[in-house]
């Protein structure tokens, strides 16, 4: 099996990570302007035209990021033991999550309360309330957009027995059988049946992102994480994704059109079309990425090395900057474009500065600076090759 083979760089995954983060930044910048979507701060004049594109972005951005994160764990475990992997996840996930909840996320909570008129105190007077440990929205402690990091850490820890079993002789044999089956025809859609089946089963539960009362997202993103890990151990299935990339793209368009224009379908059929569109899109993106991005470039390696800290920082920059820019009374499209560009530049600048501070790097999920010659790809970023 392929677990024992060398782990080459995967520039296609680097490109997908960077692309996901860019789309995420665009999506969160737009949330200040779209309609019927509450957020921490809203522009005075909204842009309803953003609703449709944002719905499409929402379908793929986080599922793809979780799928790629699962793929990254497969490559990580080719070079390290289960114990080393677990310790690394604590450093790369749990430490940045704790730092984010105490330092990065609180400005979002404060801005929301000032903007809504719920508070008039200064940020420094507000911040001690974070330490009281009362969860948001009643209190001030929250992981907000860092829910993904929390869920990924839980998935990594919960999957340790699976990872250990897959390294065993019996696990390798079962994996070979599964690879042979999934690489035939369109059999990899059976993965979608399991993942989307869990989503349908918990369809009446709200998405809370609080980990405890969120079975819909736990089943969905947990399934995507495991699917990504298995794909990373099945090169024949990845090859099949390349072969079927046009087919998947066509089905993604058909199912997306059906889900958008026939929104009164009965529940089972509505879920089938919507989540079928998501799975087809994910398969198409993986297939096209593997086909089109076959070599790395210095700029791509650098961008992916900063993707994780960019993810951690970007939403707080958008919220704080957007709230400040309200006083400029810009035209809505000018406001949106200026916020997107300025928040990107500021976040990128913060990432570049952070990467140069050895004491701050681990707090934002980066490894020691000495590994920059072969960029360390953290959780959203994969593993060094």
Characteristics:
385 residues; disordered N terminus; single chain; mainly alpha
Q: Layout of SSEs?
A:
Elements: H1 11-30, H2 51-76, H3 82-104, H4 106-116, H5 123-126, H6 147-158, H7 160-167, H8 169-182, H9 189-201, H10 215-232, H11 235-243, H12 245-261, H13 267-292, H14 298-305, H15 307-325, H16 332-354
Helix pairs in contact: 1-2, 1-13, 1-14, 1-15, 1-16, 2-10, 2-13, 3-6, 4-15, 9-10, 9-13, 11-12, 11-13, 12-13, 15-16
Description of the structure:
There is one protein chain. With 385 residues, the protein is mainly α. The protein contains 16 helices and no strands. Helix 12 packs antiparallel against helix 13. The longest helix has 26 residues. The relative contact order is 0.16.
Summarize this entry quickly.
With 385 residues, the chain is mainly alpha-helical. It is 65% helix and 0% strand.
